[in-house]
Structure formats: structure tokens, C-alpha cells
Amino acid sequence: MTDRKIPREAGDDYSPAAIRARQEFVRTHTDSAAEHVASYSLDPATLPGNIESFFGVAQVPMGLAGPLLVDGEHAQGEFFVQLATTEGTLVASYNRGMKLCRAAGGVTTTVIDDRMQRAPVFSFADAREARAFSLWLDEHLEEIAAAAEATTSSGKLLDIQKFPVSKLLYTRFNYSTGDAAGQNLTGKATFAACAWIKQHYPGELHFLLEGQFATDKKTSVVNMLHTRGKRVVAEITLPAALVEEQMHVSTDKLYNARMRGQLGSIMSVTNNNGNHSANGITAIFIATGQDVANVAESSALYGFSELLPNGDLYASVTLPSLIVATYGGGTGLATQRECLELLGCYGTGKVRKLAEIIAATVLAGELSLGSAVVAEEWVQSHDELGRNRP
Amino acid sequence: MTDRKIPREAGDDYSPAAIRARQEFVRTHTDSAAEHVASYSLDPATLPGNIESFFGVAQVPMGLAGPLLVDGEHAQGEFFVQLATTEGTLVASYNRGMKLCRAAGGVTTTVIDDRMQRAPVFSFADAREARAFSLWLDEHLEEIAAAAEATTSSGKLLDIQKFPVSKLLYTRFNYSTGDAAGQNLTGKATFAACAWIKQHYPGELHFLLEGQFATDKKTSVVNMLHTRGKRVVAEITLPAALVEEQMHVSTDKLYNARMRGQLGSIMSVTNNNGNHSANGITAIFIATGQDVANVAESSALYGFSELLPNGDLYASVTLPSLIVATYGGGTGLATQRECLELLGCYGTGKVRKLAEIIAATVLAGELSLGSAVVAEEWVQSHDELGRNRP
Amino acid sequence: MTDRKIPREAGDDYSPAAIRARQEFVRTHTDSAAEHVASYSLDPATLPGNIESFFGVAQVPMGLAGPLLVDGEHAQGEFFVQLATTEGTLVASYNRGMKLCRAAGGVTTTVIDDRMQRAPVFSFADAREARAFSLWLDEHLEEIAAAAEATTSSGKLLDIQKFPVSKLLYTRFNYSTGDAAGQNLTGKATFAACAWIKQHYPGELHFLLEGQFATDKKTSVVNMLHTRGKRVVAEITLPAALVEEQMHVSTDKLYNARMRGQLGSIMSVTNNNGNHSANGITAIFIATGQDVANVAESSALYGFSELLPNGDLYASVTLPSLIVATYGGGTGLATQRECLELLGCYGTGKVRKLAEIIAATVLAGELSLGSAVVAEEWVQSHDELGRNRP
Amino acid sequence: MTDRKIPREAGDDYSPAAIRARQEFVRTHTDSAAEHVASYSLDPATLPGNIESFFGVAQVPMGLAGPLLVDGEHAQGEFFVQLATTEGTLVASYNRGMKLCRAAGGVTTTVIDDRMQRAPVFSFADAREARAFSLWLDEHLEEIAAAAEATTSSGKLLDIQKFPVSKLLYTRFNYSTGDAAGQNLTGKATFAACAWIKQHYPGELHFLLEGQFATDKKTSVVNMLHTRGKRVVAEITLPAALVEEQMHVSTDKLYNARMRGQLGSIMSVTNNNGNHSANGITAIFIATGQDVANVAESSALYGFSELLPNGDLYASVTLPSLIVATYGGGTGLATQRECLELLGCYGTGKVRKLAEIIAATVLAGELSLGSAVVAEEWVQSHDELGRNRP
Predict the structure, then answer these.
(1) Is there a contact between B235 and D126 if contact means CB atoms under 8 Å apart?
(2) CA-wise closest residue to D306 among B125, C124, A310
(3) pTM for the full model?
(4) Catalytic residue at B384?
(5) ipTM
(6) Which of B51, B55, B378 sits opposite A85 (nearest CB)?
(7) How many degrees, rounded to 5, is the angle at CA D281 between CA D280 and CA D283?
(8) CA dist., res. C72 & res. C90, Å (int)
(9) Mutate to test the interface with B, among D111, D218, D225, D270 (most CBs of B within 10 A)
(10) D10 Cβ contact list (under 8 Å, min separation 6)
């Protein structure tokens, strides 16, 4: 082991000198020229709270897709959507889907639930004590909520779900969190709630702040059933003739392919009976300063379609655990803020609008790729637009 | 509906003029100044094949963590790891885990499987015809492989897995794909294979190139069982005293907490009985030009620990579907290439090295967060380092 | 196609003549002598409501195991448990586990939840109408409960869980059902509730009485998370020396084997991280006139163990969806009633007692088989006691 | 604790005296008259190998359904099916489905896979040793098969599937098992194989005979993907007019209801996107001496339907893990054998015939209940035929 140590500066670790020292360190101790990573326009003074040991940026190219016509309760009208990706054909494919949706009258979007959670697990001597605690919890909900909410201005405790097993009680503390994604807010509030509980519960208990029932950064059935972040639906009815004309497939072929895909999803046991929601979500998340690791859970999707008697196709996606913010996290950084502004989603009161735009984008992408697979144009388009890939 | 249309240039859509036109379009038609997004050092001439309708970049801040001591078969020695993220505490937390692992002698890493697939589904008149086709497939495997491999220089068809149901045969065409991630390569090869099959199979059949059994961009049990991309293990044995000293928890408390977390994972039905693999994987993926949407599947994790009789803790993570490339995709772009070079992973013959470094990073992060939750330092560290988050 | 038609008698299809006619029919039209099946002591007059087209009985041999020492809230003391099975070693294995548990002071049992459901799905024109209906449902809960409960003397509507997706609202109508299992009761009550809803809801809606969210006769995550029937825990702490003496294994070997089994359960994705709960449950269900098809869901199990610092082993099973009755169904038939009486569980007010006995039996069986696998006595015991099997 | 001890007789525990002693014991020490349970025609001398501590029988009433018209490869023609159950309406409902299927030309059945497994897990010092062992296993497959097959006359080792994780290798030893279900056969053979491996493998290894990857008595994704027992398909195409006439629903209503049920299945995460396969399977299993606990896994079902352009409905069920025997286990007992003879399935060479009959029965039951739910006749029929249930 060598003694190479990443330079850090106690006073201001975001100062030009501190950053430069790390860039030099990289140049000296690795094979990287660290030239492009050192080229950025953001102001490092904005970075505390977002990153430690900063030394440069990743430049992720962005393409523009749209117009995306949305008939939401929060997003209304035409949007252009920036997609940050290095995957050839992605922007083109989403753009194609948006064109189809616009011609069909636009995508209807609805946020149907909204909650963020932290999920402590409480342990006891035996199952009966766990059950007694569960009842006590119900009786003291108000005080627990007060303790939790004392730590936050924007979070409200909605309810506590309980999942008893053995001598343990797994819980989900569900909060509304305003325009923030809310993972930290709920962590802090729930920690305070647990401290209050520990102090006031007459019996003995142990708790862990996270019992893997909020499954932060991990997709799960419980999050899909009970919502994490926004639960948002995007719907459209596509005329048969329009699909034939633009996508070169008949709606019944599209529907039948989807049914075979769905059985494949059931058998392979995915968290997503659609096509590629992660593509659009990731590209928007990177662009707008979301916590991109949340793609693991946010890309979960329930698709539902109907072939109507007249041949038209009703198509919908429900994103049950879409975690987004328009405030806090990376949303205020240089390019990230510009991208939120591009969507008209920067700042307070905009988070459901962002959720709706993302859901509409996902639906457009599902229809585009779904059609391409059936029309056997998929491989061909990658050949034409994805040349960088072997 | 307006007639606003994203400017495109038929000749060279990556020319300065074409890009500028789109930036102006953004400034005119949205609330975004598009100033920082227009500031980049990458050469747009490198972008065809990676993005369409390019108009700027996302600047994602990167921090440096390490040294990470790895005892792999491909990665050997100390590494510094750049993490692209906007989540405060992430870099600090991974760094803390890396310090622990280094003090314990480093992380042992092993790639135990390596395969990428495309998964066509074949349909027939009834189950017996599907079964007959399944046998025919076995008999013609060599010719099918030849047809597939004619389309690629680096892909080899390893085998075809078969999952019969009803009158359908779902398959997985498994390939080795060299240093490429291989999704496009396998798509093209499998399309050629299916074309050959369609031409030569004496009976009637229909196929869809993707039957949702490769679950591209979607996590699934089948991918976790049978590998998608790299299946890689990172292991370590941590002395009890070291854990106590550095993480302020005893190994038995850590182990017991893990067991409660694991039951939580089982009940909530996640694809990951660990803590937050998506954090480290996403941060490396953004930095190194991976297809970040693959985080959906790549973050799947099997954790396994043992508390040894002497109190030491054996800890391991297995990433069963880690999709990485050191060639193709976004790996050659400006900052992305520099980051791969930082890790000593740019270019051919490096992909398993990258997989090992990522697995070791993930293990470091699991130990760090796992300890913080038990030591109840988790909320506190977010308070100190994650100030940007409400 | 022939014209063979099973004889039926319009007047009394359970009359000796009607039954004899069917027995003759079997003898004439099949290769069966139908001699033993025609030999029974039950009175066919008791069968209307339990079976149609009755022609005989299956004689399923029963063995006796015990004493099983239970420290429950409803079951207190020693019980002998009749097990109806044709699998050699099953009774012996359970008996061995019961002996161990008795020597360790008995099994503690606790019913921690109790609910039965029917799960209608409601469909609308779009997601917003579904959401509006969801709110309406909350506002009219009292009237809906009244409509439901008007159909039953023993059922009470506890709450309605809601799972929105697309333009649909899946629900779970949760009821307490007294000593009945309650599937029919809840079906009837929920049908009445839906009729009331359909009549009073101002908008247009369609419903299906079962949307596969109660998953009757099918195991499911939702039933494991949210209980179907009884949620019951059985716990015990086993002294290390006792386990060594009776089971010929050390508790740490047993625990480590369990951990490997548990990882296997996670990877193979079972509804049961234990060993063979279905064996004991099925054998008691057949004996006591339960709806044996419910084994599909009732055998779901969460196991949780801890190796204590002194080497003793805490072991528990939680059965989250155990469906049992001591009233209605087959519980009043000749041998079935005798078996319920054998357990002291016949009639009203006994259903939780039965649930506790079953859970304790399951725990005994888990410990017995778990030990045998580790002690490598498993194959051997089947060789000795399971001779009828090839 | 009392000293009540179940009487056992060292010499012949199946002698009339031994049995009588236990019946007396029951009468003395419990509230049961043990009168009907003591009434049976089976010869206790046939019971060794099937049950220990025998003291009586459960009399389970059986009804007759049919004719069931099957166009299988093993089952050909009309069958009458005995169903052992205490659930009112079950026989009537299956009978109704069989009538529909017969009118539509019968059910086509196909066994598409057939294998039984035992699943040892092997442990090593680290992941690399586990990987080395995995290769060694491939190289010695022939010798391992020889060791396994030396213990059985009817079992053949087909292959060994491998699922590596951490420092462990989970395996599935897949066998063909003739007319036996094969759980004991494969247990014994695999134990011998493991003994050979332990003796010949040059490195150090530990194994457990069952690593929860065969999931005996527990449903699992791995068994549904890779078959346990028989994988059998039942298919039919139903004319629209026939469905309307007999079931009082239109095929498109039936299909649409099914699609909503299927989404419910996906969301609730069942092992079965159908209706109630466990009902028919359990009733046949009890009657024919199958290991009824296997209902937990055997009731798993993949349903797949298509609404044809002309309005006819293609419907199919695939049972991926149907465990059945016509030899061994309880198949030779008095009533059990008569029931197998009733189906023409007793003895060697009949097991696939039995699997086909069961699959056809399941399909009939799915169509019957599926229609009743849509026609809203379900609750009503239970009211009429299920009077014994509250």
C-alpha cells in the first residue's frame, strides 16, 4: 500500500486551490489527463451539500425532443424535453413517440398518490410485545407526528403502515414532502419520531431507522403497491389509422405483441411490464439534477392497454414510485436549473408538473419502442443512429 | 398546438450552426437561459452515434474517493474512484467504506459469469408445435450461431435458454460480447439468427425479437438468476476490532441489524437485500459513459454475510447483472474517457477490471451505510454534508 | 363422443339410490371397482352444501403426533395432533420436532392479525375518474359497510384498501369473519356492497367482484404483507445442549445452514423461507375439514431465527395467510368434526386456538426437518420410514 | 406437563392392537369419540411406508365430474374425474367447465417438460474456489451421474444447473423419474452424488443436501421457470356463440375481465395469473393418493388467452410444476388406487396421462369460474350449492 492520499483542505475544500490540488493528484497518480473533467462553467461555491472531494464534472450530452403535448393537471400544453444520454437513437425514438402522441391529441397525465417514507423496524422480546407496541403506536400517532414534524417545515406525517412478523414490527412512516424528494427530510423526521417513541414507550424496544421497507434506491413490490414519491398515470387513445400511418404497424399486431411481452414479464418477474422506461427517466433525471440512483425504483412501471372494438388502442403507463424534486438536491446547480427552467419546472410548486412531464415522456417512449419491435425497425434504427456502439 | 419545431439540419446536424440553432430555440421558446448547458469542452463531432438533436451538456459534479484496495483477477492494487453525483454525503460515505476495506487488507473480487442476451419469443399454432420447434432449435444450434455471429466480430453465441409456455417459446440467446456491453450487438446478431430460423424452419412461426426475457433496462429475477452482463463478487473479512474502531459498532450488532434488514428485504420483495448499491453504480456509470439507464438492472444485489466464531465479519456482495463497457457507447467521449483512464480501464481487455472496481466500490458503500445506520450516525452525516437538501 | 352421462337425481341427489347409481356408473364405465370408495360411515344427508354428485369417499390415513406443548393465548397445554397424509416419515418427523419443543418448554403462539377479503376492481373512463371514485369511497365507507354487513351475521367490514393503477381501482374489502374462514361470507357481502356502490355512485363505473387482489387459492405477496385469514406467530428458544442431544447438531451449524437456505429462498424467489410448512398444514387441513386448496396460500411462511450469544437458538415462524375455520365448510362432517374435537377446536370461538395449534405444529416440523438436513439423517429416515416410495 | 404418551408397539405398530390402543388413547385423553375415524375399509398392513402412528382415516367426500373430453398424447377420449373436497359448488363448477370444453371439441393437452430435482448448495472459502468447483463439476458430470444413478432403477440425472453467488454454489440436480413423483428418489441419488463429490473433489467443500433451490413443498419462481415435476399445457379454442349460450357472457367481456385480473395478478404478485387451479388439483390429489402438500407448488399456473379476430377465444393454462405419481407414495392405497383406476391411470407408464387429465380439468375450472365472475353468477351459485358455509 502506498501513501497516496486524496488532497483535502480543511478550510474550504471547494476553493480553486483545493480543487486544483485534486486535479493534479489525478494527473500524477492515474493515467488520466483530467483535462475535460476540469472544464466546467458551474461555480464550485454552489457545491457544498451536493458533493465532497469535488475535482471536476462529467459532461453528459443532451438532445432535445418534442414538442410533447401534455394534458395534465399541472403540466398543460407543449413541452420540449432535454434528454441527457450517450445512447444513440434514444432521443430520436422518444421524439418519434412524442410526435405520435401529439397527433393523437396529447397525453393525459394524473398524479394519483404522493408520499415518501422512512421505514424503521422495531424489535421486542416476543411477538406479543411487538403486538402491544403496535397498538400503542396507534394510540400515540398524534404525538409521534408532532415529534416528527418538529424537524421539518415542509414534511407532514400522513400515516404509519405496519407489517408485523415474528417479534418484529416493520413500519413505513409515510410523509408528504412538498417539492423536495424528501429522503433526507423523512430520515430526519423519523429519527426524531423514533427518539420520542424510545423515550416514551413504557416497554423495552430496539429500533433500526431503516428496516428495508422503504427500499430506498432499490425497487420493491411494497413501493410499487403503496407508492414511493409520485404515483402518476399517463394515458392516451391512439386511432388505429394514425398508428398504421406513423408507426407502420396495425394496432392489433401491437396489442398482441404487447400481450406476449406481458407474459414474458410475468415469467421473468420484472418490476416493469413495459419496454424501457428507465431510458427516458434516466435522461431527464441526469439533466434536471434528480438523484439518478433513484432510477432503480423510479423506473418501475405498470403498463395497461386495451384494444377497443373500433381498433383504436388505449395505452397507459403508471409509474408507482417516481421520485422527483424541483427543490433541493441537485436541482439548483448550473445546468440542472437551466433544464428545469426549460421544462418550466424550477422551484416551489412544480414537482407534480415535473412528474407529469416525465410520465408523458415515458408513455411516448413505450409506444415508440413497442412499435419498432413489432415493425422490425428496431435493429435497423440502431444501425443507423447508434453507430458508436459495436 | 403551435408550430414550434426543433431545428434540425439535414446535412450535418452536429455542426456549430445546427447546435446553436437549437440553443436559440430553447432560449426563445422556453424559460431557460441555456447558458451553462451551452458551455462544454467536448467536440460535437464525436457525438453522432451517441445522441440526436444535441444542444448542450449536463455538467454533473464529480468527487474523488479512495484509495480503494482491490485484490481482483483483473483489478489489482489501489484505485481512486470518481463518483458523479449531486447527493451530498455520497462521496464521503463511500470513501469511509474504502478506508475500512483498505485497513482490512482490501476487497477480493471475482467475475464469475459474463453474458449478454436478446430474448426472442416464438409463437405457434399450439403447444405441440412449440415443443417441436424447441427440439429443432437444439438440432440447428450450430447453424443458428453461425448466422448470428456473421453480424459481429466480438460476439459469440454461448447457448440458447428456453422457457416454454402455452403455444409460445420464450428464449434467451446468450452471448459473450468482449469489451462492449453488447445490447446492440446481441440485438443485431439475434435478429440475423431469427431471420435464418424463419427462412429454414419447415413449419410456420412468428417471432418478436424481444419477449421480455432479457428485460433490458428492467430488473428481473431471470436476469438475477442467469446473469446479464457481468456476475461479479466482492468479498472481505473484517476484523471485529477494526470495525469497532472505525465504524463505532460491534460486528454482532452489525450482523444482527443486517438480518433484520434482510427479512425486511424478503417481505418488501426487493431485487436487493443490501443497502444502496445504486448510489455507487450510478455515480460511476455517469462518470464513465455507461448506459446509465442500466442502473435499473445493474443495481440488483445479493448480499451474504457471516459472523465468524471469533467475531470477525465476512461480508460479500454479488452483482448478478452488472452491465458495463470499456468500448463503444459513451466510453469514448471527452470526460467519460478521462474517467475510464483514471481507473485504468479505457479500451479493450478492460471490461472485467471495471466490473471488479465497481463491485469493490459497492461493497465499501454497503459497509459504510450499514454501519452508519446501526451507529445512528446516518441522519447526522446527512445533516452535516447534505445541506442542500431540505 | 359417447352419451355416457353421470346419473343425477332431481329430487334428492344425496339419496342412497342416487349415490348407488353413480357408483354403478363408475363400475360400468371405468376400470375402477369402486369398492373401498363406497365404504364410509359418514351420513350422506350431511353432504348438501359440501359436495355435488357424491359417490364415495377418499380414505386418507391419519397418524397421531404429540404431545405438542403450546403456550398460546387460545391454545394452552398439551395437544395431540392428527395428521392425514400418505407420505412416510411425515408423522414421525413432526413428532420428533414436538418432542424437542416440549423439552424446551413449549411453543409460544400469538395471533397478530385476522382478516378475510374480497377484492373487487373498479374501472373508469380515465385515471382521474378512478381517483375521484377513490375519494367517494372514503366518504361513503359507513354506508358501504352497512350494505355489506346486512348480508351476514358474523362478518364486519374492517376497512377497504385501495391500489390505483391506470384507469382502474383495485381494492381489498377486509372483514373479520368470526369462526368461519369467510370466503363465501365476504364474497356475498362485497357483492352487496358493490351493488350499493353501483346504485349510488353518481358517475359511471364497472366492477368485477374479484380483481385478483385477494388471490383466493393463490399465494401472493399482497396476502403475505397484509394478511389473509390468520397471521400467527410461533416462537421458541432452544437451549444449545438440548438441540445437540436430541437433534445431533450444534445450534451454530443449524443456524448457518439456515442462512444458506435463506439465501437460496431469496434467489429462487419462494413464498416461504422455511422448509416444509405445507406438510403439516395439509395434513391438519385434510383431517379437520378445512378447504385444503387453501394450502396454496396458507403454507406461505416467514421464518426468523437468531443465534443468541450463549449459543441458544431463537426460532420463529410467522404464517401470514393461514385460512382456517372451526365452523362451516367441511368442519361438521363425520371424521372432520371428530378431529376438531380431538384438538378441542370444534365450534364457535375456537378458530384462533386452531390457528395457534397449527402454527406450533409447523414450527415443530421446521425444526425437525431443518436439523435432519444438517445432521444428514434426512435421506436415511426416508429410507427407513418411507419404503413405499421408489 | 403430563405423562400422556401416544401408544406405540415395537413389534408391529400397524397391528389391530396397536391401532386400537391409539384410538382408545384418543378417546381417553381428548374430547373426540374417534368413532368415524376408526371406520375404514383399507387394510392397515398396506400402510407402512405411508404413515406412522396410524389410528384412523379421514373420510373425504368425493363427487364425480365429466365427461371431460381430452385430446392428449397420453390421455385420449372422455374421462370422468373424481374430486375429493368439502367445498360446495366445486364439483358443479368444474362439471360446468367440462361441459363447455366438450361442446367446443375438447381440451388439447401436451406435456412439454418433465423433471424432478434435489438442490444441494456447496460452500467454499471464497468465490474463486466456488467457481473452480463449478468447472470441476462440469468435467465430472458423467461420474457424478453414475454415482447418483447407482441408487435408483428409474431415475436418470439429466443435468446440473448452477447458480453461483458469493462463495456458494447453489445447484439443481435434475432427474427424470419415471412414474414416481421422485422426491425421495432424487434425494437419495443426490446424496450419493454429493458423497462421491466430497470424496473425489481435491479441494475442501461443505454441502447441504437442500439449499432451497428445489423449493420442495414451496412455490418458487425457479420452479416455475425451470419445471418441477410435469410442465403441461391444456389449450382450447372456444367459439364465441358457444360461450354466450352456455356461460351467458360474451367472449370479449370475458377477455377484458381476464386482462384486468391479470394486471391484478401482476400487482399482487401471485404465482398464478389464473383463477383457482388449486381447487381442482387438490381435489384430484386427495383422491388419487398424491402428496397433497405439493399443491403449494403444483397449483402454480401461467394462463394465456387470445381473443381471435372472429370473436372466438383461445384459452390455455400451463402448469409448470405439477408433481404427480401413478406409482409409489399413496397411489397404491385402497381408495386411492381405485380412483387412479377410475381415470385409467394406475401403475407404470401412466403418469403423463394423469398430468394431462389434471391440466384439462384445471382449464375447465378456469373457464367456469372466470365466466361466473363476469356473469355475476358466482355469489349466487355459492348461495345455492354452498349452503354449509356461513
Answers:
(1) yes
(2) B125
(3) 0.97
(4) no
(5) 0.97
(6) B51
(7) 65
(8) 24
(9) D225
(10) none
